Structure formats: structure tokens, C-alpha cells
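Structure in, sequence out. Go:
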């Protein structure tokens, strides 16, 4: 939930008040945020505890963010019925949810959180959140391949958005996407006769994998730039 939502909106949604009733309740001092009575239709966040008279409208949520190095062979799912799921890697089976996916054969940065705002901000292409990957393919690449990848490739009946791409070696490159179609990089490479041998996500927006090794994780106090 973002700052565009205000207390009036929450009262209407949670208590089924009319807009007029909700605004009147605020102006009459019947609403408090974190124990402080408010008299204006001010903004709120997920971390705020909000009460209407003595009724709890929203309990403040402790937002958690965890960056995990997902290794190859692990499915990006919390479903315990699916073998090799994420639950075995999470500390104390925290109630966190992965933002986006990495397929089983891919590795690298995976963000997990209980902050629902992150999903929209990170995954929707309109927000232009960059995802950076290092890729190794099965044969040498050339400038023509890089240029065509950068311009966009038709996969699954649609053309991918233009992207940043840079050679890192004879058969390796770095690619930066702002969208996340199913197995996008693998499908793009396949169109030009390349097979992906290694695919590692190293960055999402301002979040970097850093020196994490496979299966390691670190907690973040915030994700500035993603919300």
C-alpha cells in the first residue's frame, strides 16, 4: 500500500463507511495512528497501527526483506509438496514470499518479503525496475547477436522490450531487462541458435547479489528505491 492511500480510504474499505462518514470520523478525532489522534485525512503505511475509537482497523506490520542466493536445482516455490522448494533454505520458515521467479536451472538473487508493495513495483514493466543477469552460452557470441538481442526478440507471439546487453567474454554476456516473461532469456537465445549453460541474476533495481554464495542469504532493513 503506497502513500497515495489515506486514512479515509482505509475506513471506507475496512469499516464500510461512506466517504462522508469516514471524513467526519477523522475530523471528530475518532481515529488514531500509532496511538496519536489525527484530525486530517493523512497518509499511512503498512507499518502503522490504526484505530477507529477502540476498534483496531489495521495492525502495524513488521516489514521483512531477505536477499537469497537461489542455487541451481531449487524451485522458486513455497509449496511443500513440490520437491526442492525454497522452504529448506529459509531461516525459521519465515512467512516471506518470493518476488518474481528464477527457473530451476537458473541461480542468483531472489528477493523474499512480506511487503506486498514490492510485487507491483518490481514486476510490472511500467515501473522499469531493472533486472541484471550474467549468462553463459554454448558457443561464441558476436556483435550481430548482441544487437539483435538488444533490439528485442519475438518470443511467445510478442516482441521483447529493448534491453541493455554487454559482452563479458567469448561466450558470456550481461543483460539488463525491465520485464520478466517466462524463461525470457533462454527463449531469446534459442531464437538465434544458442543454448544457455549458466544464467545468474545479480541485481534487481538497487539490490545486488554481492558476495553471497549459493544458498546464503542476508536480511535487509529496507529496500530503498523499490517502494
Amino acid at each position: 500500500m503506497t502513500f497515495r492511500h489515506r486514512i479515509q480510504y482505509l475506513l471506507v474499505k475496512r469499516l464500510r463507511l461512506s466517504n462522508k462518514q469516514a471524513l467526519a470520523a477523522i475530523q471528530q478525532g475518532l481515529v488514531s495512528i500509532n496511538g496519536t489522534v489525527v484530525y486530517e485525512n493523512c497518509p499511512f503505511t503498512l507499518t502503522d497501527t490504526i484505530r477507529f475509537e477502540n476498534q483496531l482497523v489495521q495492525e502495524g506490520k513488521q516489514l521483512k526483506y531477505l536477499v537469497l542466493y537461489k542455487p541451481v536445482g531449487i524451485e522458486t516455490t513455497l509449496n511443500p509438496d513440490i520437491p526442492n522448494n525454497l522452504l529448506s533454505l529459509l531461516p525459521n520458515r519465515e512467512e516471506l514470499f518470493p518476488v518474481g521467479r528464477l527457473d530451476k536451472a537458473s541461480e542468483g538473487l531472489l528477493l523474499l518479503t512480506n511487503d506486498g508493495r514490492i510485487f507491483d513495483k518490481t514486476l510490472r514493466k511500467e515501473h522499469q525496475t531493472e533486472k541484471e543477469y550474467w549468462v553463459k552460452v554454448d558457443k561464441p557470441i558476436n556483435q550481430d547477436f548482441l544487437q539483435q538481442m538488444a533490439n528485442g526478440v519475438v518470443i511467445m507471439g510478442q516482441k521483447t522490450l529493448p534491453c541493455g546487453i554487454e559482452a563479458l567474454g567469448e561466450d558470456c554476456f550481461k543483460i539488463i531487462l525491465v520485464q520478466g516473461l517466462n524463461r525470457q532469456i533462454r527463449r531469446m537465445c534459442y531464437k538465434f541458435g544458442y543454448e544457455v549453460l549458466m544464467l545468474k541474476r545479480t541485481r534487481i533495481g538497487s539490490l545486488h547479489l554481492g558476495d553471497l554464495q549459493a544458498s546464503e542469504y542476508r536480511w535487509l532493513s529496507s529496500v530503498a528505491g523499490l517502494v
